[in-house]
Specification:
The complex is a heterodimer. By secondary structure, chain A is of the alpha/beta class. Chain A is built from 7 helices and 10 strands. In chain A, helix 5 runs parallel beside helix 6. The two termini of chain A are 30 Å apart. Chain B has a 6-stranded mixed beta barrel. Classes of the chains: A alpha/beta, B alpha+beta. Chains A and B meet through helix 2 and helix 3 of A and helix 1, helix 11, helix 12 and helix 14 of B.
């Protein structure tokens, strides 16, 4: 494994058992993601890209094969260790935003810090500064249901950043937004990559997002069909 | 951190206010039942035992017949004979024997006639035993003088039997006039407090009953073991009866009860009442607990996605369990408080009614122990009912929970 690799998938299989039948979703995927990379995972719906992202984000474990996060096999971690990794190293952004509806914007951003045992003062300061930096200073005490999709997704981004994770994992982050708002959200992610050096992994079926990335991974029927780096991207686009 | 979980739990409960309150109501009813009944039965036990304590420990009660068959004895009119009373008196360790004689008689007081329990009291010889060992004390007036047609009346006579009855007035029993000279202090039972006490010699004159007694009380001399003397009284009585009845069929039996024995019998009965009361109350709380469990399971199902989100942002299984347990614990606690306050209030109200109309003497016993027990019990039921739903919430796989709609 190269020195700079933060995530490594080694012949990863995910097989669901449906009664007597076995349904393989991922069929032996191997992939290296370097520290500080901006990776876009493309593929049609049902291709297994979200399943793969869930495992990269330690929300799920492979049926076969290994996933290394900072050289650690996630299958060998206890549930509590996985929770710890999710809380500290990974920030999630979901298509559905997945905010807690009975909490205000500020409280939603503070929640991950509660689980890391940060003090109330630290939590409030960090959450406020994140919300301000994302242009939500007027929305802090609003409940998610009172906010637009774009605002909700920005709160979700602030929440993902609250514990200053190394990796941001985004599953169709613009899927529920209009194109203009989606573009703004992508710009936030690009800035995080450029300015803060975060490793960003985005799953999408929107090929235009691929233009922002340094690495494009194409998945089809649970298999890796292409893995391009920035230099080759044009070529890949032409071949499509 | 616990404080934060507490905040989250409270928020969750408030989000589902109606359901939370209904669940709490389930616990309220159960705790209300337990608290009111428990404090009343505890108070009843204390009252009865206190009454018994007024009777000296060196006193035994002798009743003809078997204690387990007491109704038959009373209905059958079996009495202690003069010979029996002498046997008791002659038993070693017996200081005095006081026959307990009573009969229903008509009494007329200011144009009203009622049946009263007339009790013959050997005031000449045993006033000291009546006062100090049996607990009869004068509340107003004085004791009647032996040989004179004077009566003392129980505390309920001036209130219930002949309302407005006063001392230094006259009453007629069996055509003879009596001076009412004293009112006794309450001894705690309706029967004792409704009686009319008259000197034994007068009692014998007007009732015509000169021999024997339905029951007797013996005072044990100092330095003797009460239980042993009680045993020898019983043995002597039975042996004498056998001798007298030689050749005849049947066998007489006697019950000799020490106040400790009576106390333990009563204590035992009250204990059983309390267990029964607690058992019924517990069933109500159990139903409330099942309500909590139901609510929490529904809540886990509804919040599956939320649990997934919390896990995705770093919540450990123990954190999820904790949040759910706090929620169900709060339901239990509020339910416990909500049931305890009106429950103990009701008990106090019943006590107040009992005091205003002294028909039944009942005291609500409200101790810190009962309050603490009630609170811990309801929190415990809450947490216990919340435990399984909480565990099932924690066991959810984050990826499955997030996918749940």
């Amino acid at each position: 494994m190269p020195e700079s690799s933060i995530i490594k998938l080694d012949n990863v299989w995910k097989i669901y058992q449906l009664g007597e039948m076995q349904l393989p979703i991922l069929k032996g995927i191997s992939l290296d993601i370097n520290r500080g990379a901006f990776v876009v995972i493309l593929g049609p719906s049902g291709s297994g890209k979200s399943t793969m992202l869930n495992m990269v984000g330690c929300l799920d474990l492979p049926t076969k094969g290994q996933i290394f996060l900072d050289n650690q096999d996630i299958a060998k971690m206890s549930e509590d260790e996985l929770a710890q990794v999710r809380g500290r190293k990974i920030g999630f952004i979901f298509q559905q935003f997945n905010l807690l509806h009975n909490l205000s914007a500020l409280e939603n951003v503070m929640i991950p810090m509660v689980f890391q045992g940060k003090s109330e003062k630290e939590r409030t300061e960090r959450a406020k500064s994140l919300l301000i930096s994302l242009g939500l200073e007027d929305r802090m005490n609003h409940k998610p249901t009172e906010l637009s999709g774009g605002e909700q997704q920005r709160i979700a981004i602030a929440r993902a950043l609250s514990n200053d994770p190394e990796i941001i994992v985004a599953d169709e982050p613009t899927g529920n937004l209009d194109s203009g708002t989606g573009k703004k959200i992508m710009e936030i992610l690009i800035n995080l990559h450029k300015n803060e050096g975060k490793t960003i992994i985005v799953v999408t079926h929107d090929p235009t997002i691929a233009n922002y990335s340094s690495q494009v991974v194409h998945i089809k029927d649970g298999q890796l069909v292409a893995n391009h780096f920035a230099e080759e991207k044009v070529l890949w686009s032409n071949n499509k | 951190m616990l404080k934060e979980y507490f905040k989250i739990a409270v928020k969750n409960l408030r989000t589902r206010q109606l359901r939370s309150w209904l669940t709490i109501l389930g616990i309220v009813i159960g705790v209300f039942l337990i608290m009111s009944l428990l404090s009343l039965s505890q108070g009843l036990k204390a009252t009865v035992l206190n009454q018994l304590r007024a009777v000296g420990t060196d006193i035994v009660m002798i009743i003809p017949g078997n204690i387990s068959d007491i109704m038959t004895t009373m209905m059958g009119g079996v009495e202690l004979t003069e010979a029996d009373l002498n046997t008791i008196k002659n038993t070693e360790g017996v200081q005095a024997v006081v026959p307990n004689v009573f009969k229903g008689e008509l009494m007329n007081y200011q144009d009203k006639t009622k049946t009263v329990i007339l009790a013959g009291m050997d005031i000449r010889n045993y006033l000291d035993i009546y006062e100090n060992d049996i607990g009869m004390k004068i509340a107003a007036g004085r004791w009647s003088v032996a040989g004179k047609r004077e009566v003392v009346v129980g505390s309920l006579v001036p209130t219930d039997v002949f309302p407005g009855l006063k001392i230094n007035t006259k009453a007629t029993i069996k055509g003879q006039q009596f001076d009412i000279v004293g009112i006794l202090k309450s001894r705690g039972s309706k029967q004792d407090d409704s009686m009319i006490g008259v000197d034994l010699s007068i009692y014998q004159n007007i009732t015509g009953e000169r021999k024997g007694a339905p029951e007797a009380i013996a005072k044990i001399s100092a330095g003797y073991n009460v239980d042993q003397v009680a045993k020898s009284i019983k043995t002597n009585l039975e042996q004498n009866a056998k001798r007298r009845a030689a050749g005849q069929q049947g066998e007489s039996s006697y019950s000799v009860l020490t106040s400790a024995a009576v106390g333990s019998i009563v204590g035992g009965i009250m204990g059983i009442i309390q267990v029964v009361v607690f058992a019924f109350g517990s069933i109500a709380v159990l139903v409330g607990g099942i309500g909590i469990m139901n609510t929490m399971y529904t809540s886990v199902r509804e919040r599956t996605k939320e649990i997934g989100i919390l896990k995705a942002v770093g919540a450990k299984n123990s954190t999820i369990v904790m949040i759910f347990l706090i929620e169900s614990g709060i339901i239990g606690l509020i339910g416990g408080l909500g049931g305890m306050i009106p429950g103990l209030g009701l008990a106090k109200l019943i006590q107040a009614i009992g005091q205003a109309h002294p028909v039944f003497y009942i005291e609500a016993s409200i101790t810190p122990g009962i309050i603490l027990f009630g609170l811990l019990f309801s929190i415990g039921v809450g947490c216990l009912s919340g435990f399984f739903p909480a565990r099932s919430a924690a066991k959810l796989k984050p990826v499955d929970a997030l996918r749940y709609e």
